[in-house]
Amino acid sequence: MTIKHTLLPLCLAATLSAGAQKPAAKAAPKPAAFQLKYESFTLPNGLKVILHEDHSDPIVAVSTVVHVGSNREKPGKTGFAHFFEHMSFNHSENTPRGANRKLIPEWGGNRNGGTWSDGTVYYEVIPKDAFEKILWIDSDRLGFMINTVTKEALEKEIQVVKNEKRQNYDNVAYGSTGEVILSNLYPKEHPYNWTVIGSLPDLQAASLDDVKEFYDRYYGAANATLVIAGDIDAKKTKERVQYWFGEIRRGPSVQPLKPQAARLTETRSLSFEDNFAKLPEYTVVFPTVEQYHPDSYPLAILAQLLTGSKQAPLYKTVVTERKLAPNVSANHQAKELAGEFYLRVRGNADTDLDQVKSALEEGLARFEKEGFTDAQLSHIKTGLETSLYSGLESILSKAQRLGRDNEFKGDPGYVMKEAGLWQGVTRADVLRVYNQYIKGKPYVATSFVPKGKIDLAVNGAKPATVWTEPIVQGVANEDVAPGADAVFTKTKTKNDRSEPAFGEMPLFRMPAVWTDKLPNGIKVYGIPSSEIPVVNFEVVIRGGHFADPLDKSGVAALLASLMTQGTAGKTPAELEAAIDALGASISMTATNEELRLRASCLSRNFMPTLALVQEILLQPRWDKTEYDRIYTATKTAIKGREANATVLAGINFNKLLYGTGHILGHPAGGTKESVARITLDDLKAYYSTWVKPSAASIHLVGAVPQADAMKGFSGLALAWQGSAPALPAYTVPASDKGGTVYFIDIPGAKQSVLYVGKMGVSATDPDATGISFANEVLGVNSSGRLTQVLRIGKGYTYGASSQQVRSAERAPFVAVTSVRANATLASLQIIQDMLRDYGTTFTEKEVEVTRNKVLKGSTLDYETLNAKLGLLNEISKYGRPLRYVEEDQQQLVKMKLADYQRLIGTHFKESDMVYLVVGDKATQLEEVRKLGKKVVQLDVDGNPVSF
């Protein structure tokens, strides 16, 4: 997993009001001092250790930050830090092969790793009974893995990383933008000249000697920070850390790298015809300063001043006035050695990027002339306070932040100073960094345009060079297996490094749920939570896409977008300003079966935020200008999704199962045909019919007492009346497509997206919970058979999973993966055989594995405010008991092997499965025919086409 770590937070939804500078308003109250208590110490071998106790949930997060990222690589060996991260998960001297990827999920835990330009992190969140086992695995990986690496394991992992690159960079629109920008922004000798993922030729050339050299150089104890956070006893934990980590070698001294800002002497403009893009995109990047530099804070605020609201100058010139794109974004990315200030516009279809460039220049000129108000600056700072708390909500996020700040700043408690740093940014600071880093300064610009439309690129842009991988037919040349275990002499240690026993098993206990009812009949569900001074709440209205007219798919989605664009008494800009003055966020979305109006705010601002939610819900503005903008943005999004093979697969898989006579056979966001039929009057009709309290429920989680919440919601009850009709009735068609393979052509695709599934059951079906349990061994997380075989065993994919989708209507059971193109047939055969044999190979061992995964995994699943909102939604939508998770656990404990085999035999039949492949027809269609099933080709809209 490749991730980017930047200072928290960078991209915040800030509200900016228009106009020139006005007299300073009354100073905002100083935020309360934020505290994140921790202990820190250093082992004799140099390992830096931080402990944070949090007993709110019976879980522990362990995070190891190693101070080595892609900036330590050499030209010709790019991508190696990330590749080594992958290798580190495979094996170590004292743990079984695959323990990390398979055993940790079976213990109820989550695990992963990430590499960015400056570092690598390994992390787990586990039920507390597995804490000692995680110390065992993590310490062995850090100190005792290198002797276990074999040539076969290396070659297999090379294929996995190559699949990740194809999936996330080479097989998606705009995936090469970063490569073009970095190689032109930084000179060849600069550590940021290449991307974290690196190049495929470099990855392919990686050798065992490279792995050992990298480990010896950078993976010593003194080059890492270990953070343990959660339900721990600090004194005992210190002893166990010394036991497990104390014998790891110190490693050679790794000298810090000094900041190296990119020093452009001229503007560079590059163009690229993107095989997958359907929309033109223009990106501008200015070189700036490194992380923790004092200027990084006003630069991040500057980004929001330029683009973060409807009154921001670049938004006005690009979106509102010239109507060139649905949006414009800016952000400052500060890294260890240097920083980058980004402006990005993905234009509407066939937009000339010269016009986008001109609009950006006009917007910057307007910023220079009109400036910004103190109120705008204050609103951004208030939003930063909310974001600061929300960004430290989970125990893992706390561990990650403590570790990163310790390793890169030398101060694990730096986050506690950050609110003050944001608050200290002045008007003069913002104007100074604009003049110093942006105004009139050289930059790198990229014009990524659809294939065959180079005329849309900015005039004078030079063609960019991007290495393109050829599709090689057949898997033989890349078909690899992990091979036998390495033969080595085990490193002698003073302490016994055999697997420790489990501690006492924790079980998830449902939090206290309060329920109430408003005078207009709305049921209210709440969970108290006071860990952070934030409250999340939502009004959920039954209907959503399900209530769309059959020939006007997309009405609910358009309505949800429009509802937050002003109210009858507030213009869109005024509503934005009111929300951001509170440091709140309010959004409305349309799902298949609901409209969801959700808000998040500081607890002290609950009442005024609720007042705005009520105003949005009951006083729509019906702003025609905003409707036209959203309508255009919707059409642009529909065109843009043609570039996303995974999205196309999901939309067309639903169409195959539900058919065109069922609303769920049509995408919730609409099609180009359905959206063309929609008018503003359709949105008004939907609102007047379906947005009624009889179809609503309210959910609240956070530091607001029940009495205060009900007092606030009582005003909504008095003002909101009426009943919604029954939802339309649809019949899910009987399946006649089982055993058929459908193929959608994406010319030149480096990977094939595979969907294999059938119509499943409703979430209210008596078998629904049992099906989810029966699926654990097949396709849930990295311990599932799909990932264990397709990724771990074969190296065909970056990941694979399966699930029974939950909804009130019957919903699909589906297995999904994205495999390298020349492994399409082999992957289909594996999935086919796995489904055929699942029932007969599901034994008493799998019963026990499932029981452990689910029972212990539940302790992790409901930690955050939004996760707790999910609990309330499950209760209110499906009428489940207030303690339903505990009741499901009791059901699980009682299930026998015969119960699983009945469920698998009924709901997992391979002969009922529909196969969908989205990939390169020229190389894969004839291969797919060899599966021996009927093959039907579809266009991107799911309509049959002749061969």
TrEMBL record:
<feature type="domain" description="Peptidase M16 N-terminal">
    <location>
        <begin position="48"/>
        <end position="165"/>
    </location>
</feature>
<dbReference type="InterPro" id="IPR011765">
    <property type="entry name" value="Pept_M16_N"/>
</dbReference>
<comment type="similarity">
    <text>Belongs to the peptidase M16 family.</text>
</comment>
<dbReference type="InterPro" id="IPR007863">
    <property type="entry name" value="Peptidase_M16_C"/>
</dbReference>
<feature type="domain" description="Peptidase M16 C-terminal">
    <location>
        <begin position="207"/>
        <end position="384"/>
    </location>
</feature>
<feature type="domain" description="Peptidase M16 C-terminal">
    <location>
        <begin position="677"/>
        <end position="853"/>
    </location>
</feature>
<keyword id="KW-0732">Signal</keyword>
<dbReference type="Pfam" id="PF00675">
    <property type="entry name" value="Peptidase_M16"/>
</dbReference>
<dbReference type="InterPro" id="IPR011249">
    <property type="entry name" value="Metalloenz_LuxS/M16"/>
</dbReference>
<feature type="domain" description="Peptidase M16 N-terminal">
    <location>
        <begin position="533"/>
        <end position="638"/>
    </location>
</feature>
<protein>
    <submittedName>
        <fullName>Pitrilysin family protein</fullName>
    </submittedName>
</protein>
<dbReference type="InterPro" id="IPR050361">
    <property type="entry name" value="MPP/UQCRC_Complex"/>
</dbReference>
<dbReference type="Pfam" id="PF05193">
    <property type="entry name" value="Peptidase_M16_C"/>
</dbReference>
<feature type="signal peptide">
    <location>
        <begin position="1"/>
        <end position="20"/>
    </location>
</feature>
